[in-house]
Amino acid sequence: MAKGTMRYWAAAKAAAGTHEEPYDAGTLAEAIAAARDGRGGEFARVVGRSSFLVDGEPVGTRPHDSVALPEGGVVEVLPPFAGG
Fold it and tell me: Which of 10, 33, 52, 55 lies 20 to 30 angstroms, CA to CA, from 64?
C-alpha cells in the first residue's frame, strides 16, 4: 500500500465535496473504490467518465487495477471538459 494525494478538478471536485484527499492504496482501482465509499451516485458517475494522471503521467486506457500507485504520489481526477 502507498500513501499519497488524490486531487479532484471541476465536476469531480464538486461531486467529491473537496479539492483533494489522501489515498492509501496499492492501485488506482483501489484508490477509486475507497474514494467512492460514502459518496453518492453523482460522484461515481463523474469519476467513471474521468481521465486520470498519476504523477503527471496519463493513465490512458490501462486497466485501473494494473496502475500501481507510488508512495507520496499525486493522482489527478480530470472529468471531461468542454472548451473551445
Answer: 10
pLDDT digits (tens, 9 = 90+) for 3-35: 999 999 999 999 999 999 999 999 999 999 999
31 contacts 75 by C-beta, under 8 angstroms? yes
pLDDT tens digits, 27-65: 999 999 999 998 989 999 999 999 999 999 999 999 999
Report the b/e string of 33-49 with b at 16+ CB within 10 A: eebeeeeeeebeebbee
The CA–CA distances, whole Å, from 22 to 4, 37, 60 equal: 6, 14, 22
